[in-house]
């Protein structure tokens, strides 16, 4: 039992009633009851709470359990008792955490964490429990339930059928959400621990998703529709994404209407970044990472049987705003007039190799005006169509004047 943590909590509950209780004295009483008289920690906590309630003639102070509440009524900073079902268990991110996952009842769902020092019983997926004296807090904009040493956990029997409410993508908020959506894009993985990332869409909007490598986790199939129950909606720099490691994934038959989520941006291609032109990708299924010049993959090491790809990474500037763009193979071929087969032949038969492809791509389109359509993800536009615009002398002069004025 964490005497200090429990004593502070009791002191705060008393303070909320307009009285002061010394945490050090409370800790001493708890320690004596448990260590000298062998009283179970939960019972010792109730005993001390009752004694303080009598001392200050407090009504409604209650026990350490807190008020019993439904999950959708929990507020950060309170102590509560809830009855809920474990609908998902996820890998603990730290040795300080024994278990983590998702709890659900008929009103909603919430993330939970069981601290290692709580010495709590192991929770099982699919079972209902009563949690007395759990702490409600907030993490990344969503409500969470913390199970500590003073929490009393008891398995209960329930035959309640939970039906998670499907939320349109446009209405998702940080916390736990369930969606029915189509996989419309699959992206390069950017981290060794990442299994898959991409874009989901329904008729209301689009949202990035990620699946981290974990036993039993499988990739989603591009173009397929899924019902995704109890996914974690995260927020970073004002942008939402779905973490599917906690989700129950149900493949659906048929198709659904989806929002394109596209925006259009027009400007001059003022920079083509390294990593543009002809590149090599790891051929291992589910990887697709860009290889180094020595055909080295950071995950799968040397890959002599690599796959070629063609792309452009650069910046579009409209005279006011600069936008980073990533143009994939089909659009790159259209803009440059160079197919991937031609690029490969050029690289394999020229002394400069892949550098020659980069130079020719740069010479053909750097400085040209482009009107691009695509999705903005993580501050980058993923271009799915692009048109070359005719030379505009007035716009060019405006850009040059702006550049001259800032020197």
Task: Tell me what the structure shows.
- With 407 residues, the protein is α+β, with helices and mostly antiparallel strands.
- It has 4 domains: 3-55; 67-156, OB fold (Dihydrolipoamide Acetyltransferase, E2P) (Beta Barrel); 169-252, OB fold (Dihydrolipoamide Acetyltransferase, E2P); 263-405, OB fold (Dihydrolipoamide Acetyltransferase, E2P).
- It has helices at 3-16, 23-36, 41-55, 329-336, 340-349, 354-365, 393-405, and strands at residues 67-68, 79-90, 97-105, 108-115, 128-139, 142-147, 152-156, 175-187, 194-202, 205-212, 225-236, 239-243, 248-252, 263-272, 277-281, 296-297, 301-302, 307-317, 322-327, 369-377, 380-389.
- The strands form 4 sheets. A 5-stranded mixed barrel has the order 2-3-4-6-5. It has a 5-stranded mixed beta barrel with strand order 8-9-10-12-11.
- β20 (369-377) and β21 (380-389) form a beta hairpin.
- α1 (3-16) crosses α2 and α2 packs across α3 (41-55).
- The relative contact order is 0.08.
- The mean pLDDT is 87.
How would you sum up this structure in a few lines?
This protein has 407 residues and is α+β, with helices and mostly antiparallel strands. The protein is 21% helix and 40% strand.
Mass-distribution shape: elongated
Oligomer: single chain
- Spans of at least 5 consecutive residues whose pLDDT stays below 50 are none
Q: Could you give the count of β-strands?
A: 21
Number of helix segments?
7
Determine the structural class based on helices, strands and strand pairing: alpha+beta
CATH architecture of the largest domain: Beta Barrel
What would the average pLDDT be, to the nearest integer?
87
Distance between the termini: 66 Å
CATH fold-level name of the largest domain? OB fold (Dihydrolipoamide Acetyltransferase, E2P)
- Rg calc: 29 Å
| Major beta-sheet overview | 5 strands, mixed, barrel
Tally of domains = 4
Order of helices and strands: HHHEEEEEEEEEEEEEEEEEEEHHHEEH
């Amino acid at each position: 039992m964490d005497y200090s943590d429990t004593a502070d909590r009791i002191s705060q509950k008393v303070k909320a009633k307009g009285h002061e209780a010394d945490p050090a004295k409370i800790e001493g009483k708890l320690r004596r009851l448990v260590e000298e008289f062998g009283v179970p920690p939960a019972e010792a906590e109730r005993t001390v709470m009752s004694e303080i309630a009598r001392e200050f003639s407090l009504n409604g102070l209650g026990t350490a359990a807190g008020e019993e509440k439904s999950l959708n009524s929990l507020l950060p900073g309170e102590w509560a008792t809830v009855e809920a079902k474990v609908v998902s268990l996820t890998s603990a991110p730290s040795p300080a955490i024994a278990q983590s996952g998702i709890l659900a009842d008929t009103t909603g769902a919430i993330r939970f964490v069981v601290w290692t020092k709580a010495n709590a019983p192991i929770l099982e997926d699919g079972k209902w429990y009563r949690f007395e004296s759990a702490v409600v807090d907030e993490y990344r904009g969503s409500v969470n339930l913390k199970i500590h040493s003073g929490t009393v956990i008891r398995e209960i029997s329930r035959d309640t059928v939970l039906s998670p409410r499907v939320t349109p993508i446009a209405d998702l908020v940080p916390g736990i959400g369930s969606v029915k959506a189509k996989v419309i894009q699959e992206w390069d993985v950017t981290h060794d621990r990442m299994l898959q990332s991409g874009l989901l869409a329904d008729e209301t909007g689009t949202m990035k998703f990620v699946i981290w490598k974990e036993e039993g986790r499988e990739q989603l199939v591009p173009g397929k529709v899924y019902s995704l129950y109890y996914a974690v909606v995260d927020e970073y720099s004002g942008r939402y994404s779905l973490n599917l490691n906690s989700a129950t994934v149900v493949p659906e038959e048929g198709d659904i209407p989806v929002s394109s989520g596209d925006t259009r941006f027009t400007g001059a291609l003022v920079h083509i970044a390294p990593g543009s032109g002809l590149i090599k990708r790891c051929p291992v299924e589910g990887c697709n990472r860009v290889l180094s010049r020595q055909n080295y993959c950071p995950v799968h090491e040397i890959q002599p049987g690599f796959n070629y790809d063609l792309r452009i990474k650069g910046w579009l500037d409209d005279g006011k705003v600069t936008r980073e763009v990533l143009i994939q193979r089909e659009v790159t071929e259209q803009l440059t007039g160079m197919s991937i087969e031609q690029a490969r032949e050029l690289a394999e038969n020229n002394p400069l190799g892949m550098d020659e492809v980069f130079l020719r791509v740069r010479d053909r389109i750097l400085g040209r005006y482009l009107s691009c359509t695509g999705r903005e993800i993580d501050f980058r536009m993923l271009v799915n169509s692009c048109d070359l615009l005719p030379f505009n002398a007035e716009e060019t002069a405006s850009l040059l004047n702006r550049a001259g004025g800032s020197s």
